[in-house]
Amino acid sequence: MIVLRSLLFNVAWLSWTVILAVGAVPALAFPRDVGKGVARIWTRVILWLAKVIVGLRYELRGLENIPADGGCIIAAKHQSAWDTFLFHGVLPDPVYILKQELLRIPFIGWYMARAGMIGVDRSAGAKAMRHMIEAAGAAAAEGRQLVIFPEGTRTPPGDSRPYKPGIAALYARITHPVVPVALNSGLFWARQSFIKRPGTIVVEFLPPLPNGLPKQVFMDTLHTRIEEACARLNAEAGVPLPPAATPPTADKAVENSVEKI
To answer: Which regions span the lipid bilayer (predicted)?
Structure first.
């Protein structure tokens, strides 16, 4: 039954994505708020399809930790493709920090670029880091919520990889609060998995980190808070964890570039 429901859901959400991507092309000619509305509709329909077809629901905790004025940095655990569209339906005006090549994808990339998503060329070193900080600072000044996945890639539940230096650079140069986010989405919508499992994904917005922490203290605190909260959410779900993956070698060129800015 799970296989059949997963098949129906995968066909439904991919079909919906294609239909909306093609049908909403005229929105590219309108102000960014129109595109933001398209993204919100896209997200809410996918979440509804997941609930109706698969029995996959979600629960949001700690929403009171998101600053009332909107401007903040959302530093989220990344376990699943599910995470990449959730924040469109939760935050008032999110802007994702993502790989530059994603903006080149036909249709989807066009919408992301029009919505002001910040692409980072990871091969450009310090230049890419400066561009990210400048673009992120401008977005934060507009009251938008910066969404960044500190690990830089999806990580299986129960696994942890070194946090990339981009989040430390943002913390040091943008005065908005950093809100850590823990979740357990990978237990139900695993990376590169056809199967989508019923249950309840929990997303928890943790209290913001204080400003002015030394870089290493900030990175250690952020890592500890997110990983400990994720471990708690994983245990709470009562779903077996997948085999742990081997962490990739850190990109030293990008890490070193932070010190050059």
So the answer is: 7-29
